[in-house]
């Protein structure tokens, strides 16, 4: 391609303009002008993946690696602040990696993302020498995926590192602990699917760590943190015992694993006086929730997700009693096989609890509402005791996109007859046991399945359900 003259501009302005162009456009400009070529050689942001390089890179894997190789060969390595290499299944890049890293990972880099391979048939061991003295003194964010990383004692401190994310990385627990102890400025730590870690220790030197997420590390048995200023903690798909130590600063807690709600007394940390937002998700629950060992005095937002066949939802009152400042409650209980729990198959007499005052609760939403007697009892309890309640939403669907959603633009999601049956029973239970208990100051919203998209099945269900529709026809 021939060189095209570029208007004379100060070099810093030209570099600035060029740096704002998308990767593909910037690379094309470098091929058309000597001025832009010089600018390309010190471009501060290099994000190398299929999306940024365009569809032409998808034709052949070898072509994709050659494109990356040519890009980096034409770059001086000077001035790179952000380098992202995400290979997405390119299996012929192994012999390029060391050269690419030598060019791009240079002193002054601040953001480094490496996904050397995708799959189980390649294992690239990211060398500790990659984090040389100059790199250690500048790097602020490090993300490693699908590789092996074994930091050694020779690795010095990373004093500016504030964010670390490891996804499917082979690293041992003591190696990670050593790495963390050399990262005193770390603020965010995200670990996912790191299967060789059995004991995660967060050293006390991490006084600035405020966000910790651990997900689907199947071999993890213990999470022990001595970071005193932890603000947010997320645990998903991990059965590890949690030892958070001092959690006075904790404001956001999100935990999801089997039997968590049932074991709330022992699973939830007991000393979180400043907690404001709590999400707990669980499956395989079989009984109810015991009274909690402490009060969440400042908790404002509570979300509970229960994926189970049988549960006493009425026992969740203990969460309300433990949260005197609660403002919003979201309960997700969507299930299919729950016939034995239906209020239509047992005594309609509802359980009562001593009157309580939940003076701050304003919004309640139950997603997947069905005719379980304990769910009806919980709803009636809230209506009676939450004097500040403004809105109550009872969604008998899964909350999936519907045809009246203009952004979705399609028909309602298909549902099998079993779930539609339970949703229909839920709507009848609302009509029979809840509607007349809703104060005039509370806005009740009942979400049902669309009769246009589910006309045939709903008509058949109504014909089958005369046993409970006769008295409570909608």
TrEMBL record:
It holds the Pfam family LRR_At1g61320_AtMIF1. InterPro entries: At1g61320/At1g61330-like, F-box-like_dom_sf, LRR_At1g61320_AtMIF1, LRR_dom_sf. Residues 71-450 form the At1g61320/AtMIF1 LRR domain. This is At1g61320/AtMIF1 LRR domain-containing protein. It comes from Urochloa decumbens.
């Amino acid at each position: 391609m021939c060189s095209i003259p570029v208007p004379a501009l100060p070099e810093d302005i030209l570099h600035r303009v060029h740096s704002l162009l998308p990767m593909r456009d910037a690379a094309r400009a470098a091929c058309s002008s000597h001025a832009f070529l010089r600018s390309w050689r010190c471009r501060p942001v290099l994000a190398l993946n299929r999306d940024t390089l365009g569809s032409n890179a998808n034709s052949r894997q070898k072509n994709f690696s050659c494109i990356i190789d040519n890009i980096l060969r034409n770059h001086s390595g000077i001035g790179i602040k952000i380098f992202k290499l995400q290979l997405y299944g390119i299996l012929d890049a192994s012999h390029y990696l060391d050269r690419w890293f030598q060019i791009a990972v240079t002193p002054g880099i601040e953001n480094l993302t490496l996904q050397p391979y995708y799959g189980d048939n390649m294992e690239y061991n990211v060398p500790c020498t990659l984090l040389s003295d100059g790199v250690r003194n500048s790097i602020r964010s490090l993300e490693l995926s699908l590789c092996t990383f074994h930091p050694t004692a020779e690795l010095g401190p990373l004093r500016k590192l504030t964010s670390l994310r490891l996804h499917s990385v082979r690293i041992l627990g003591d190696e990670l602990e050593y790495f963390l102890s050399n990262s005193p400025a770390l603020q965010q730590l995200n670990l996912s699917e790191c299967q060789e870690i059995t004991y995660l220790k967060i050293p006390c030197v991490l006084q600035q760590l405020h966000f910790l997420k651990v997900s689907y590390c199947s071999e993890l048995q213990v999470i022990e943190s001595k970071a005193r200023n932890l603000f947010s903690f997320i645990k998903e798909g991990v059965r590890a015992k949690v030892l958070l130590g001092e959690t006075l600063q904790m404001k956001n807690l999100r935990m999801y694993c089997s039997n968590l709600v049932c074991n709330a007394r022992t699973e939830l940390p007991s000393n979180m006086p400043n907690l404001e937002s709590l999400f707990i998700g669980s499956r395989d629950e079989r009984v109810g929730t015991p009274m909690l060992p402490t009060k969440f005095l400042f908790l404002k937002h509570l979300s509970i997700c229960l994926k189970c066949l049988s549960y006493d939802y009425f026992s969740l009152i203990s969460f309300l009693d433990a949260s005197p400042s609660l403002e919003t409650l979201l309960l997700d209980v969507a299930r299919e096989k729950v016939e034995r729990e239906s209020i239509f198959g047992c005594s309609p007499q509802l359980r009562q609890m001593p009157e309580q005052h939940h003076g701050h609760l304003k919004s309640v939403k139950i997603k997947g509402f069905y005719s379980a007697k304990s769910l009806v009892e919980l709803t009636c309890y809230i209506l009676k005791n939450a004097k500040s309640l403004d809105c109550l939403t009872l969604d008998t669907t899964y909350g999936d996109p519907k045809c009246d959603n203009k952004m979705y633009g399609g028909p309602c999601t298909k549902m099998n007859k079993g779930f539609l049956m339970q949703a229909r029973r839920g709507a009848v239970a609302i009509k029979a046991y809840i509607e007349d208990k809703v104060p005039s100051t509370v806005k009740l919203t009942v979400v049902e399945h669309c009769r246009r998209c589910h006309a045939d099945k709903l008509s058949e269900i109504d014909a089958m359900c005369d046993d409970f529709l006769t008295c409570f026809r909608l």
